[in-house]
Design goal:
- The complex is a heterodimer.
- Chain A has helices at residues 6-27, 33-39, 48-67, 81-97, 102-111, 115-139.
- In chain A, α2 (33-39) crosses α3.
- In chain A, 59% of the residues are buried.
- Chain A contains six helices and no strands.
- By secondary structure, chain A is mainly alpha-helical.
- The radius of gyration of chain A is 17 Å and the shape is globular.
- Chain B is an all-alpha fold.
- Chain B contains six helices and no strands.
- Chain B has helices spanning 2-20, 26-33, 42-63, 83-99, 103-108, 115-133.
- Chain B starts with a helix and ends with a helix.
- Classes of the chains: A mainly alpha, B mainly alpha.
Chain lengths: 141, 137
C-alpha cells in the first residue's frame, strides 16, 4: 500500500465531480466522456463545437496542472501493441453499446442514483478486476 | 457560445483532475484493479470525491426545469436493465482491465506523446465507429 495517495486522489476526484456539477448546472448535460466522444462520430449540426471543446479541454488539462507547478504523473505501459489495440477497440465499442464509461456511469450515474449505472458500474468493475487478475497473475510472468 | 466555453472549461477541469489524482497513469489504475497484487486503493478515493462533488449538480437538475443557461436537461431517464447495457459494460471492463485506460484518462494522456496512448485512442475511436456501423442487435 506504499503507493496509496488518498489526498491527491480525493482532491482530483473533487475536481472531476465538480466539473460534472458545473456541466449539468450550466449546460444541462451529463459529463460522460465516451458519450461526448462518440457523438463526434455522429455529426449533428451545432453539436461538433461543444464536443470538440470538451475533448480539447481534457487534453490540455494536465498541461495546466504542470503550468501551475503541480505534478503530472508519468504514464507507464508494459503492453504490446496488439493488446493496446484490442483494449482500445473493446473500450470504444463497449462504452457505446453500454451507454457509458467510468465518468458517465461511474461518477454521474452513481451520484444521481441511476439503476442502469449502478448495474453497469458493478459489471465493468468486476470484469476489469477479473481481467487484471488473468493478465497479471495467470497469463503474465 | 457560452456553452462551448463551459464545455472547454469543464473538460480542462476534468483533465486536470485526472492528472492530480494520477488516474491518467494506467499502471496506477491497474494497481487498484489488482486485488491479488500490491493493492493501491487510490481509485476508490477518487471515485468518492467525484461522486460527492457531482451530487449537488444532479440534485439541482432534479429541482429545476432548465439549466442556468436555459438549456433543457439532457439526462438519461431509462431505468431498464437490458442485454446491451450488460454486454457493453462487460466489453468495456475487459478492455479497461487489459491496459488500465478508460476514455477520460486516455484523452488526458494524449499530450505526453507516447505511441501507446495514441494507438489506444485511435483504436477506441475505431471501436466507437464500428458500433455506429454495426450495432449489436
Amino acid at each position: 500500500m506504499e503507493n496509496f495517495t488518498p489526498v491527491t486522489g480525493f482532491v482530483g476526484g473533487l475536481m472531476i465531480g465538480g466539473a460534472a456539477t458545473l456541466f449539468v448546472a450550466l449546460n444541462g448535460r451529463v459529463a460522460g466522456i465516451s458519450g461526448i466522444l462518440g457523438g463526434l462520430l455522429e455529426p449533428r449540426s451545432g453539436e461538433w463545437l461543444w464536443r470538440g471543446a470538451f475533448v480539447l479541454g481534457i487534453v490540455v488539462g494536465p498541461w495546466l496542472v504542470a503550468l501551475a507547478g503541480g505534478h503530472v504523473p508519468d504514464v507507464r505501459f508494459d503492453d504490446s501493441w496488439p493488446v493496446i489495440v484490442i483494449a482500445g477497440l473493446l473500450v470504444g465499442y463497449g462504452t457505446r453499446l453500454g451507454n457509458g464509461c467510468t465518468s458517465g456511469h461511474g461518477v454521474c450515474g452513481l451520484s444521481r442514483g441511476s439503476p442502469r449505472s449502478v448495474v453497469a458500474t458493478a459489471v465493468f468493475f468486476s470484469v476489469a478486476v477479473a481481467t487484471t487478475y488473468l493478465m497479471r497473475h495467470v497469463a503474465g510472468s | 457560445m457560452m456553452s462551448v466555453a463551459v464545455s472547454l472549461i469543464v473538460g480542462m477541469l476534468m483533465g486536470a483532475g485526472l492528472a492530480v489524482s494520477q488516474m491518467m497513469d494506467p499502471s496506477k489504475v491497474l494497481d487498484f484493479l489488482d486485488f491479488a497484487g500490491n493493492w493501491d486503493p487510490t481509485l476508490a478515493t477518487v471515485m468518492a470525491g467525484a461522486i460527492l462533488a457531482a451530487f449537488p449538480g444532479f440534485a439541482f437538475a432534479r429541482k429545476r426545469q432548465a439549466s442556468l443557461f436555459g438549456n433543457r436537461f439532457q439526462i438519461p431517464s431509462r431505468r431498464d436493465i437490458d442485454r446491451d447495457l450488460i454486454a457493453g459494460a462487460a466489453m468495456f471492463g475487459i478492455g479497461w482491465g487489459l491496459v488500465g485506460f478508460c476514455p477520460g484518462p486516455a484523452l488526458a494522456a494524449i499530450g505526453l506523446g507516447l505511441w501507446q496512448v495514441h494507438a489506444f485512442v485511435a483504436a477506441m475511436m475505431a471501436g466507437m465507429l464500428l458500433y455506429r456501423l454495426f450495432p449489436l442487435k
